[in-house]
Amino acid sequence: MPKIKCKIAYDGTNFLGFQVQPQKRTVQGEIERALEKIHKGEKVRIHASGRTDAGVHAKGQTIHFETNLTMSGESWKKALNTLLPDDLYILHSEVVSTDFHSRYNVREKEYRYFVLNKKEPDIFNRNYIFHYPYRVDIQLIEEACKHLIGTHDFTTFSSAKATVKGDKIRTLFEATCIRDDDRIEFRFRGSGFLYNMVRILVGTLLDVGQGRKKPTDIKRMLEAKDRKLAGKTAPAHGLYLWEVKYK
Q: Which of 10, 79, 155, 212 is most deeply packed, by most CB within 10 A?
C-alpha cells in the first residue's frame, strides 16, 4: 500500500493535544476524520513524529499514513486541506517508501519557546507567547545553556508523570537563548525529547536568569536525576514543534 508523508502546522490553542481521545478535539482526531471521508468511511490511522500536549503549537510536525488510494502528494495536500479546520494545515505531502516511519526514522527535532519579557502583557498574543514580566539576565541563561548541550540523562528535566520506557538519555545539539527587544526565544535541537522536557528546561533557565539558580547548577541537576531540583514547567502555549528532520 502507498505510504504518504505530510508536514503539518497547527495552532494548539483549541486542541486537547495531538493524540486522539474519545469525545475530545485533537489534531489526530481531525486528520483521521478527514481521511475517513476521503476513504468513503474506511478508517485510516496516522502516525506522528511525536505527540504534543494541549495548547502546544506546531510549525513542522510530521505524520504518515498508509492508503489504498493512488494520488500524488499535491493532491493529498489539497484534498485534506479542503476538509480540515482553519487551525490545522497540511504544508506538504509526498509519497514515500514503505519503510519510512514518521517516529522511528527521526534524526533530530527542533523546538522553540517564546517569552514576552516586559511588564505589560500582549493580550492579542496571549495564546502564543508566555508573558514573563520579571527582569532576567540573558548572559546567565546563555551560560547555563552550554551545560545542556551533549548527551546526558535528562531525568531531572522530565515530568514525573512520564511513562517512557527505557533510559532517559538524550542528545542536545543546540540549546540557545536569543533576546530581541522584549522577546526571548529559546531553541532546542536534539535527537529526541522527554515528556515536558523543553518546558521544564525553560522554567529552569528562567530561574537562572533571575538569579535563583546558577548556570553551573545545571550540571549538578543533570547528575542528580531528580525532578524536584529543576524549575517549574513553563506553560504550553509558548512552545512550538518547529521542525523534524529524518535520516
A: 10
DSSP secondary structure letter of residue 156: G
Write out the DSSP string of 72-89. Answer: -HHHHHHHHHHHS-TTEE
Distances in whole angstroms, Cα of residue 214 to Cα of each of 139, 142, 175, 203, 207? 11, 11, 17, 13, 9
Q: How many CB atoms lie within 10 A of CB 161?
A: 8
Q: Would the pTM count as exceeding 0.85? A: yes
Domain architecture of the chain: domains with CATH:
3-96 (3.30.70.580), 107-246 (3.30.70.660)
**Bridge partners for 150 per DSSP:** 172
Q: How far apart are CA 192 and CA 36, in angstroms?
A: 31
Residues with a known catalytic role: 53
* Kind of pairing between the strands at 130-131 and 106-116: parallel
- N- to C-terminal Cα distance for the chain? 22
Give pLDDT tens digits for 53-79. 999 999 999 999 999 999 999 999 999
Bridge partners (DSSP) listed for residue 186: 113, 177
Q: Residue 164's pLDDT band (boundaries 50, 70, 90)?
A: low
Give tens-digit pLDDT for 88-110: 999 999 999 999 999 999 999 99
Beta bridge partners of 243: 110
Element (H, E) at 141: helix 138-146
